[in-house]
Write a structure and sequence with these properties.
Strand content: 15-25%
CATH architecture: 3-Layer(aba) Sandwich
Shape: globular
Largest sheet: 5 strands, mixed
CATH topology: Rossmann fold
Distance between the termini: 12 Å
CATH class: Alpha Beta
Number of strands: 5
Radius of gyration: 14 Å
Strand order of the largest sheet: 2-1-3-5-4
CATH superfamily: Peptidyl-tRNA hydrolase
Length: 155
């Protein structure tokens, strides 16, 4: 069984934040589910992701190698993504929490690029990811999310 988990922050306040792109991918994937795949959102704050992910891995009897954490990544430019196993961003507290609770980094990361900052305006990352995507960014993000869903369907 493959377990796809979108990372983000719960609540309407965070719905369109860059930090919630993992939730956005899960919302798009949920309409295209097939047997052997479970999609979930963490429904806890990003930095606490490890506890709920550990519970879901146990609940669905999933090996960590069949776990896919979908999350925002400031190391990747907006409009790009990477799918990698055991490799992640330099600093991401949600991923760090998962690695600590699972005592493993042997899981997949779907790293969705969200960095669209102007080189003259380097808002600190921890503030930037809690900002909403602009309407233009949301439109540009739709085909990226669609491509990610299509790619994940092939794994």
């Amino acid at each position: 069984m493959k377990l796809f988990i979108g990372l983000g922050n719960p609540g309407e306040k965070y719905k369109n934040n860059r930090h919630n792109v993992g939730y956005m991918v899960i919302d798009a994937m949920s309409s295209k589910i097939r047997n052997g795949i479970v999609t979930k959102k963490t429904n806890c704050f990003m930095n606490e992701s490890g506890g709920i992910v550990k519970k879901l891995v146990a609940q669905y009897h999933t090996n960590t190698s069949d776990l896919w954490a979908i999350h925002d990544d400031l190391d990747i430019p907006f409009g790009s993504y990477k799918i990698q196993k055991g490799k992640g961003p330099k600093l991401h507290n949600g991923i760090k929490s998962i690695e600590e609770k699972l005592d493993s980094n042997d899981f997949w990361r779907v790293r969705v690029g969200v960095d669209n900052r102007d080189s003259d305006d380097r808002t600190p990352g921890e503030k930037y990811v809690l900002q909403d995507f602009s309407l233009k960014e949301m439109e540009l993000l739709k085909p990226v999310i669609k491509e990610i869903c299509k790619k994940l369907a092939t794994f």
